[in-house]
Here is the input.
Amino acid sequence: MTGPVADALLPPAILAVLVAGLLIVGHRRWAVVLLAALVLLSVGGVPHVLTSPLLKFKEVAEKAPPGAIVVLASDMPEFLDTSRTVPSMETLKSLRTAAAVHRRTGLPILVSGASAPIGDAPGDALGAKAPVADGMADSLGRDFDVPVAWRETTSTNLWQSATATASLLRGAGIDGIYLVGQPWELRLRVAVFRAAGLRVTPESVPYRRQRTLDLTGLIAFTPAWLESAVAIRQWAGLACQAMPLCVAWMRGPAVTPGPS
Here is the structure.
C-alpha cells in the first residue's frame, strides 16, 4: 500500500487532517483524542512496536534455486531532479544488497519501479515523468558496476509489480527469485510475489535496530512519524492481501510489462 493515496488515507497524515477538521467544526474532545494518537506515533518506541512483528515471518524452503534477483523501489520517496529519478537512501541500500547477491550468484537482476513526476525547474514540461526503475538501473551500473537485465516500469503498486515481474521472468523461463528488500517490507512482498506464482527466497538488506523500548526510545522525534507511517502501510498491505476483493482491486486491469 504505497503512493500518494495511501499516504493521505493512512496515519499519521489522515490523523492530522481529521484533527484540523474536528477543530474547525468544533468537536474539540475528539480532536484532542486524535491529536494524542498523532503525538503517540511520534514517540520513538512506537515504530519499534509496530515494526517488530513484521520482521518475523515463516520461511519456506524452495525446492529449486532462484533464477533471478528482483529489487523494488522502497516505500520511502525517491529524489527527483529535472531529468531523472534518483533512488532514495532506502532504495540504494536495496540496490547495494542486490549487487552483492549478483556478485555471489551471478544471477541477472530485475528492477521494478513505476514512473514518478520530474521537472521542478522553470520551463520544464508540466507533468513530465520518468520511471523510477531507470534511476535504479542507472545507479546499479554507475555506483556498483552491475548490469540490469530487466526493467519493470508499468506497475503503480506492489501487486501490479508482482504480476508484471512474474510475466517478464516467465518469458525468460524463470519462476524463482531472490527478492531483495528492507526487512520490514519482506513479509508483505514475499506474500504478494508468491501469490503471483513465483518461488521466492527473501534477501534482506542488512539491518540493525537502533531504537528500542528504553528511556531513549520514549523521546518524541519527528522521524518516528515516517517510520510509523511505513509500518502502518505494511500492515494495511497485509490486511489487503488477506482479502481477495482488495487484491483484485490493487492488481487492476492486466498490464503489459515494459521493455527489458
